[in-house]
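fold-stage: in
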Amino acid sequence: MSWNSSDPQLSAKLFGKNGVLEEQKSPGFKKRETEVYVGNLPLDISKEEILYLLKDFNPLDVHKIQNGCKCFAFVDLGSMQKVTLAIQELNGKLFHKRKLFVNTSRRSSKRTPDVTQQPRVPLVLEKASGEGFGKTAAIIQLAPKAPVDLCETEKLRAAFFAVPLEMRGSFLVLLLRECFRDLSWLALIHSVRGEAGLLVTSIIPKTPFFWAMHITEALHQNMQALFSTLAQAEEQQPYLEDSAVKRGTRCLAEYHLGDYGHAWNRCWVLDRVDTWAVVMFIDFGQLATIPVQSLRSLDSDDFWTIPPLTQPFMLEKDILSSYEVVHRILKGKITGALNSESHILKFEESK
């Protein structure tokens, strides 16, 4: 697999101005060695509270990220020395009855992945086949070559990864049946093979699983049709009544694209907790927690005729460790479906 974000012909068609996915500009994150990662934060925490938490280190800026039921932040402290002091002072400290996980910024692509220091993947009931797992070449391609602990490499080679909740066959079947009336396109997934370019939209860190758009002419046509329709409907669609927001509701919500802003996109309500809804952006394979009052109605079947733009994939021989790959293009070969989860396609790296 090659890691490529600079192909102008591919990228020009996928991300557009003002953050709307009409063309792609591969935003990604800039590496900052002066940033500290702060994990296991409360969902309702404000940026001001995060800054106050690190007030002793004179924080310059904070980038809060909420992904499903997880909340974490990257805080720029201005120097590597302050980052070290913040880790020593705050890592493991209780904050709002939560044990903080504080470490160097995981946006850095030059760090050698530390499997033992990172949070575990979500617990699920099914496990993927170990067939096809091999050396972690993707990590080496994303970072300068460095001495490798052979014992750790062998552990990675022998690893078995739990299939993430949002990629399990039972979950995907339920989502697709409730969102789409016509599922005839689903049968074509098993026949997809060969060389491909994948625009990564979401990853499960420290695992081989990720969501991506398979770049084809049909994808470009579907994107143009879908986003044009949603742009026209955005102002016309009413906000949902509180009582209407429940598991299985089809709706419209703002999807954030980092520095490139946001756009309204299709989503499905997975769960609700008080005034918050856990939704799945089906065109990006991304879970998010969103205020109930910010959801718009999108229940007409007219908005659900175009299949999801993204689908789940699994690297055959590597794992993904850096969020920098999100919104970038991976090149390689689709080799078939994962044995235990027929909706997940296996992807082999380019040599």
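fold-stage: in (second)
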Amino acid sequence: MPTSLTPFPLSTWALYQLTSSQEGRHTPYMVQPEYRIYEMNKRLQSRTEDSDNLWWDAFATEFFEDDATLTLSFCLEDGPKRYTIGRTLIPRYFSTVFEGGVTDLYYILKHSKESYHNSSITVDCDQCAMVTQHGKPMFTKVCTEGRLILEFTFDDLMRIKTWHFTIRQYRELVPRSILAMHAQDPQVLDQLSKNITRMGLTNFTLNYLRLCVILEPMQELMSRHKTYNLSPRDCLKTCLFQKWQRMVAPPAEPTRQPTTKRRKRKNSTSSTSNSSAGNNANSTGSKKKTPAANLSLSSQVPGLGAIPNCSLNPGRDGDLCHSTAVTPSGQFKEKH
């Protein structure tokens, strides 16, 4: 009995792989970008209670670029919040999620859209859910929904360059069995009715994000301390001195090549009227072009008066300016 194959829409990534294979181009990564999130979920599930900072650094190195940034946007009772942390603070962010009582963390992407650029791949998922399973203070499942925008590098590693999660809403789910167990205890029911997170984030994570506002600008100090083994006070002095130098230093001006002026020989056979007309034109042009040549030197040096007699016509020795100055003793002195 013949069976008909139901056509299904190809994703943008599948179409790109198809065209790449047809054109003979090399496909850097043979999976969809969403599969990287699936791999990250599996890596988070393999975490143990003994996972130290080295494990979290290896996790961030596997899935995030060296210059990656992670941004969280949400709205609390006191207004909207937006936190952006760099690559060095990303491992600690994920570890604080589990320190707040979370035993499991994974991300679900639905109906995501992919776009491809020269060196990056952007995944825009308007229906993303961050699911966390809490073991304390009580057994609760929290679903944090929002929009997740990811930018991957288009290479063999396909690591995340930018992570932007905008939280819209969240839900805290308590099993019915727990409610049935404590149905006769009003105090426990009152405790179960209270939220254990704020916009799906634990207090450990929120406090760490607030701390990152201070830690992020201090990355330069920490890097200098780690590189040169200086004391914190010396690191601060060095950074402030370098910033002060950059502020005070004048902007670099482009070097100009000196222009050489050629002298024009006067024709001895020219008429007297032409030479006098040329001299008048030159003197007029010198007044228009160089107004600073007629400035009095006495305005700059006290006790020294000057009688300007300066023009752009070269003199006998090839000088451009010839003036007579009066020295403080009252004697006249010619200046070339």
